[in-house]
Write a structure and sequence with these properties.
The structure is a single chain. By secondary structure, the chain is α/β, with parallel strands linked by helices. The protein has one domain: NAD(P)-binding Rossmann-like Domain (Rossmann fold, 3-Layer(aba) Sandwich), CATH 3.40.50. It is built from 8 helices and 7 strands; from the N terminus they run E-H-E-H-E-H-E-H-E-H-E-H-H-H-E. It is globular.
């Protein structure tokens, strides 16, 4: 591999590893780190997705290493991190973004369906974090950012498998933040709200009616963008967040807050309360 601009190695550049980095939010995160001057490693089960990601990242300033990896398999994850060590000799940021999800009532999720999602999200995050530890410990300002969701601490009807796995990742985030603090490693999470990508349109937002219902449930009145999620990840990995660890940043337009406890303002029968006293009149 060579630098996309100069054709020569750039060993002094920081390195970011993004799992699920070939498409969607993962690719947006990788593109953001490229803008920040990082060399990149992206991992995915799909070689087609990796090729797509590499093409998008070409000419963005840094080198790009693509490694086909199933994060459910610890041996493949170990191979991924070894490739990063061999090619770059360092790792500064790990973004655990690989995920799997589909909508189903809990009682209809098969054991295989449950296992597939939980193993990608929870096992994969642990395997990648554990394997990356030796390289992260040697970095000057190491950071791990895990991608979760607001239903990690709320409820996720229709996504019991993913909600359970993301809740596990959130607990792992906080635990590793404490365990690894003495190494100087910061561990945080970003909880994206509803974002439309090719993948979510194919697997989650299956109708225009559903899209509109979701949009109406977001206080800011719109879906987020992959770039907005990437900006949050870049912030948490940057020196600007050097005293932040063990935290989760919701980037969801206020969606997880919903309507609050009781949204009286949405009731059209409720008008402006009549004042008790007229203006300028003092109480005797």
């Amino acid at each position: 591999m060579t630098d996309a601009r100069t054709g020569v190695p750039s060993p002094s550049r920081p390195v970011a590893l993004v799992t699920g980095g070939g498409t969607g939010i993962g690719l947006a995160i990788a593109l953001g780190f490229a803008e920040d001057g990082y060399d990149l490693a992206i991992a995915s089960r799909s070689e087609a997705h990796l090729a797509e990601g590499a093409q998008a990242l070409a000419g963005r300033g840094g080198r790009v290493l693509t490694v086909p990896t199933d994060v459910r398999e610890a041996a493949q994850v170990d191979h991924l991190v070894e490739r990063v060590r061999t090619e770059y000799g360092r790792l500064d940021v790990l973004v655990n973004n690989a995920a799997g999800n589909f909508i189903s009532p809990a009682e209809k999720i098969s054991p295989n369906g449950w296992s597939a999602v939980v193993r990608i999200v929870l096992d994969g995050t642990f395997f990648c974090s554990r394997a990356a530890l030796p390289l992260l410990r040697a970095a000057p300002s190491p950071s791990v950012v895990n991608i979760v969701a607001s239903y990690a601490w709320m409820a996720g009807p229709g996504t019991a498998h993913s909600a359970s796995a993301k809740a596990g990742v959130l607990a792992l985030t906080r635990t590793l933040a404490v365990e690894w603090a003495h190494y100087g490693i910061r561990v945080n999470a970003v909880a994206p709200g509803h974002v439309r990508t090719q993948g979510t349109d194919e697997h989650l937002w299956l109708s225009a009616e559903l899209v509109e219902r979701i949009r109406q449930g977001v206080p800011l009145g719109r879906f987020g963008t992959a770039e907005e999620i990437a900006d949050a990840v870049r912030f948490l990995a940057s020196p600007r967040a050097s005293y932040i660890t063990g935290q989760v940043l919701a980037v969801d337009g206020g969606q997880w807050l919903g309507k609050g406890v009781l949204d009286l303002l949405e009731d059209p029968t409720i008008g402006t309360p009549r004042p008790t006293h007229r203006a300028g009149k003092s109480e005797k």
